[in-house]
Amino acid sequence: MGNLSVLVKKFSVPVLFFVFGITLLVIGIRSKQDSMFMMASVLMFTAGLLSVLYSTGKIKPRVLYILGFIAGAAALVTVFLSYKSVRDTAIYNENYAQCKSEAIQNLTDIRFAQKAYAEKHGTYANTWEELVEFIKTGTVPYVVSEGIVPARKLTVEESKYIYKDNRPIDNLMTEVEAYKLSKSTMVPEDLEGFRRDTIEVSLLKTKFLNKSYTDSRMKAGFGKFYADSLPYIPFTKGKEKWKLETKDSVQMGDDYYPAIRVSGEIPYSKIQGTANEKLSFGKLTSNETAGSWEDE
Question: ∠ at Cα 130 (139, 281), nearest 5°?
Answer without folding.
Answer: 90
